[in-house]
Amino acid sequence: MTPLDKQARIAGLWFLVVILAAPVRLVVVPDGSARDVIEHLALFRAGILTDLLSGVAMLFLTFSLRRLLIGVHRDIANTLVILGGILPAALYVVNVGDDAAAIILSKGAPYLDAFSEAQRFALAELFLRLHDRMVVAAELFWGLWLLPLAMLVWHSGFLPRLLAAWLLLNGIAYIAQCIAGFAWPSFAPTLSSLCAPVQFGEIAFALWLIALGARPGFRQKELA
Question: At the N or C end, where does the chain have fewer CB atoms within 10 A?
Answer without folding.
Answer: C
